[in-house]
Each structure stands twice: as structure tokens, then as C-alpha cells.
Amino acid sequence: MDLRSRILDYTAGLEPDAPYTPPGEDERERLARGVGLLLDGDAAEAERLLAPLGLGITRLTDTDSGRRYDEVAATRRNGKAARWGRLYLNADSALRWNVQVPHPVSDRDTEQLGVRLLEGTPSGALVLAGAHRRAGRGDEADVAHQESSAFHTVVVELQKRGVPGLQVHGFAETSERPYEAVVSGGAAQTASGEAAALADRMEADGLRVCRGWSARCPLEGTTNVQGRSAERQHAAFLHVELAPDARGDGPDADEAADALGELLTTWSDD
Question: pTM of the full predicted structure?
Fold first, then answer.
């Protein structure tokens, strides 16, 4: 099937006034065990654990690339599990990286960028939130700041296995944010070689970049819970904020996506 259409059809239904209920503690524990088994190659036992949560595992072949993916998604269109998000794992190679999209639709076109990166570079995974960040009550669907989410649970399982993560966000460009990109390590205030190389590549392509480890940047993601977890797990984590011109059909979108794709290729080769 067309993987891009399958994913974007799912995110097209995310609304800010939709209901959202995060998984409870027991549900998160079962989710973590199920995803962990899938990552370790035991899909049958993983599916047995995930089924009571309303989640299933489907092997997909993308008609465009020919690559195979394992999709973890809700088995019913309605119900709270449908709003927990999805996981896509490349089934044809060892897992070397993951792209995280915590705010699909609300951070416009980040879901499209996530799909583009998943399709464009082998050996990766896509972790996708399943609710608009303003859904539900209060900030409970803002999964970049909630450890109680299915999104965070999945990311932590990847971090436990040392899989590097790239989390993509979007921001509105203002006079206080005269950049196309803000690159940081999230909670980590030091720069990895990959972070510096990413910023260098973006600047070489004409993008204005604020480097969170050497300047006072907005939106550095220092309170991002996945970044804090990565620091505890000693897993590589990059937090990237992109202006509208560097997303979707913007004039700088190709340059931004190519630079991020080069980062993922570096992780794949490593």
C-alpha cells in the first residue's frame, strides 16, 4: 500500500477538540513490554501482549519504495487506543534511528516530514503521536511534555536499546525567532558531533540556524521529557524546530529535509 497516504490519512483526522485519554500505568507497562518484544524480534508474543490494549501489528509493503514496515496501530477506528499514536518499523534491516513527531497537524507539516524521512532513509522507525496537542483536557495530549503518554513509552523502549532519536517540531517565525531552524540536544546542553554537523549542513544550504549549545535560542526543548529520558538512558537525541519555510512546501523545505536525511544516514552507517 501507499505508506505515505496511510499515515497522512490517519493524521488528517486529528482535531484540537477531540477526546483523548492517555494509557494508564498498567497499560503503559504492557505497551512497553509489547513494543520491546517487537524490537527484539518476537512479533507473535508482542501481538499477544498488545491485543488487549486494542493494538495490533501489521506487516506493510510500501508500493513506492518496496520496503516492508511493521505498523503498531489501533485495531479499531474508535476508542482511546486510536488516539495513542502509531509506530512504524523498517522490517528489512536492523534498526539504527528513529524520527519522533509529537505534534502532528498542530506543528503543521511535521507529519509529512516524518514520513519523508522514514521513506527516504533505510533502517529507521517513525514514532507518531495520535492526537492533536490541544485534544483532551489541559495539556495531557502534549506528549512532548507528558511521560504518561503511549508516545513517550515507545520512545523510551527505543532509547533503552540505544537507538538515536530525532524529534521534529514546528514554530511560527517572528522577529524574536529570525531562524529557519533551532537545533539542540534537548535537556543536554552540550553539542554532539551529529548536532554540529547538522547545523553546519543547514547553514551551508542557506538556512539560518540557532545552535542551542552555543547561543540563547528559543524553543530549545530543555523541558522535553523524551530529551530528559534520553539523557538518563545515554541515548543520542536531537531536538529540531523548523520555521514554516522549512516545512511542507516551503522554499527551504527540501534543504531542511535533505540535511536531516543526511543525519539519519550517518546514524545508519554508524
Answer: 0.97
